[in-house]
Amino acid sequence: MNQQKPYSLVNLEAVRNHFHQACQSRTPVRLWRAVADIPVLLAELSRLRSLLVLVRAMHANLLAAARATIAAARDGEADSMYYLRDELDAHDQLPPDHLHAAELLAQPYPETIDDPAGEQDSQ
User: How is the chain split into domains, by residue range?
Assistant: First the structure.
């Protein structure tokens, strides 16, 4: 499973500088440099939209698993935690068996997310 931090792959400061320079001088070179940033920005927008769709789907699946777990517990199912365990396992997020709750909560939250496009973090 590919994982990456959902940070921008675009140097937004450089894009801003290109835009401001183009607005100030209006020379053909600076205008073209600013225009050349548009496809890069569109690609980044598309990548971030894909990540947002993925995060929304993961959130919806986790919420559904949590609700199913509570309903199963109310219904007296023998393994009511199955739904939650299955969803966490699907994302390799099941905690190790040897960790107690206090130890697990003391660990930093993993700052990774599935990458739908299979891209690698280039920064």
Answer: 11-92
